[in-house]
């Protein structure tokens, strides 16, 4: 039997009169990297936040979200707090905005750990250093001592990934982790995410509007359009033989170099996918 960590069935979410996610169903297996791709406004980020119950009271939600067989829709607020960070980690699109500018990075590790278990600041810093070393940071002590504004966007994003891993979650949700980063830094972030799977066996559900990034890292891929999952399958199958016209349009929009496919060249340029004939959602 497949070892399914996360199973989402018929998930829908709306704000007032706007239905942002409509009937999405997907699954993430242990140690698997799943990518969800689509243009801005397609509902990708709303879907991730809905999985963890982070949309707030103004949102209306329906459907089933099961983590290791447990229905999260029925979980108490206390149980959800246990799961968030400890069982399921979250990486946000702009990590600098989620970090306290007055606190050094080692405090981020301390705050992440102490929510779930007692730990000294010294021990939290030690665990943070070990994680940064495992993720191939060249100078972990500099990162830990730095304030967010002293780091580059890529360093902040990779540090946020490490902080999300400090409690060893089985699943990581990543919201546009390569957005607004240049090509070289994108590659570093991709390598860091891949390393989390190799080192810790962590499964990843990652959303992006960059087809090249998803093509390079994901085992399976889903394509979202106007809140719906219009295509789903193994990444190589979807990229080689897309079935839905929208997926075909997305792949045609990916920048290419002569002789290279979208999984190799598409990550060169972080640009918003906007196929001809599509409109903002």
Summarize the structure in words.
The chain has twelve helices and ten strands. With 281 residues, the protein is an alpha/beta fold. The strands form two sheets. The protein has a six-stranded mixed β-sheet with strand order 6-7-8-3-9-10, with helices on both faces. Strands 2-1-4-5 form a four-stranded antiparallel β-sheet, covered by helices on one side. Strand 9 and strand 10 form a beta hairpin. Helix 4 packs across helix 5 and helix 7 packs parallel to helix 8. The longest helix has 18 residues. It is globular and about 50 Å long.
Shape: globular
Q: Which bin fits the share of residues in helices?
A: 25-40%
Rounded to an integer, what's the Rg over CA atoms?
A: 18 Å
Uncertain stretches: 257-273, 276-281
Major sheet summary line? 6 strands, mixed
Which descriptors would you attach to this protein?
12 helices; 6-stranded mixed β-sheet; alpha/beta; 4-stranded antiparallel β-sheet; disordered C terminus; 281 residues
Q: Summarize this, please?
A:
This protein is an alpha/beta fold and 281 residues long. It has twelve helices and ten strands. Helix 4 (105-114) crosses helix 5, helix 4 (105-114) runs parallel beside helix 7 and helix 7 (153-165) runs parallel beside helix 8 (183-200).
